[in-house]
Amino acid sequence: MMDKILSVLQGEADLWLRIFMIDTLRYLLGVGVVLIVLFVFFRKFSLQRRIQKRRASMADVRREILFSLLTTAVYALVGLFTLRVKQSGHSLIYMDVADYGWFYTLLSLPLVLIAHDAYFYWVHRAMHHKSLFKAFHRLHHLSRTPTSWAAYSFAPGEAVLMAVFMPIIVVLLPLHVSIIFAFLTVMIVRNAMGHSGVEFHPAWWVDTPLNTLTTPTHHDLHHQKFNGNYGLYFTWWDRWMGTEFPDYKDAFKLAASGHSATAPARSFQTGLAVEEAKP
User: Quick check: 271 and 265 in contact, CB under 8 A?
Assistant: First the structure.
């Protein structure tokens, strides 16, 4: 009996390790591609488009990578649970496009992104409440001047909250396995772009309907000021809820014009203290 239990546990551990390696590779490739494009192929352009004058230290980068790897370990655990949900027949994951047709299959990608954006906004905003911030979200905000490596730099509790979206959505929305892969790819690439510290969008972006999409400046201001700009892919929740910073467009245009913004006026520790104390 004990041998059987140990064998099952070993099998689960081996599967978790494979999922962890895949999630870690996705993180490294997603961040790596963004950094190579910005700071190898378009280095001069990117240096002119820095959002902050302040630069992240090597200690910041090491912390971001370390906790991002911890996050992929948590993601792998939740991914293992999601796989078991599928195998039990309780999910709506499907393998054959013919089950729902090409139209729905392609439509399901923007649907899951819209759902994830809503989930992210409200969970993210909740983590800024004084009763949750220190335990769940403070670590991510140690990246005062974030780099793309901060994409998954979460405390374990935040990593769990971010990861459980997947087992929730697969029991609510039919998703082809390729759409799940595409969603996870978009998520890490968008995260890496949003934390890059480089405003690569054209200066006219925020004066057009494209302003429904977030930009690196949008999220960078969140790291500078803490209590606003909570959205991930879209700006509409921040606008509907009145949480978009009023100086967002000015800060965007400053960075997009090639004039780096100044570092945040108040100290980093003061900002964290304010965030932890707010109701």
Answer: no
260 touches 52 (CB < 8 A): yes
Q: Tens digits of per-residue pLDDT, 47-102? A: 999 999 999 999 999 999 999 999 999 999 999 999 999 999 999 999 999 999 99
Query: Do 254 and 50 form a contact (C-beta atoms < 8 A)?
Result: no
Q: 266 pLDDT exceeds 60?
A: no
254, containing H or E segment? helix 248-256
Q: Dihedral angle at the C-alpha atoms of 33, 37, 41, 46, nearest 10 degrees?
A: -140
Residue pLDDT, tens place only, 37-49: 999 999 999 999 9
| pLDDT tens per residue, range 201-220 | 999 999 999 999 999 999 99
Query: Is 19 a member of any domain?
Result: yes
Comparing C-alpha atoms, which of 254, 74, 102, 94 is closest to residue 165?
74
Q: How far is CA 46 from CA 9, 70, 201, in A?
A: 48, 29, 11
Q: Helices 101-127 and 165-172 sit at what angle, rounded to 10 degrees?
A: 140
Task: Answer yes or no: is 79 within a domain.
Answer: yes
Residue found under tokens 């962890």? 20
Give pLDDT tens digits for 150-196. 999 999 999 999 999 999 999 999 999 999 999 999 999 999 999 99
Q: Where are the alpha helices (DSSP H) in 88-215?
A: 101-127, 156-163, 165-172, 177-194
- Length, in residues, of the chain: 279
Structure tokens at 272: 């964290």
Are the C-beta atoms of 109 and 119 separated by less than 8 Å?
no
What is the count of structural domains for the chain? 1
Q: State which residues form the domain around 188.
A: 2-196
**What are the E-state strand segments in the chain?**
93-94, 175-176
Which tokens belong to 248?
A: 């967002």
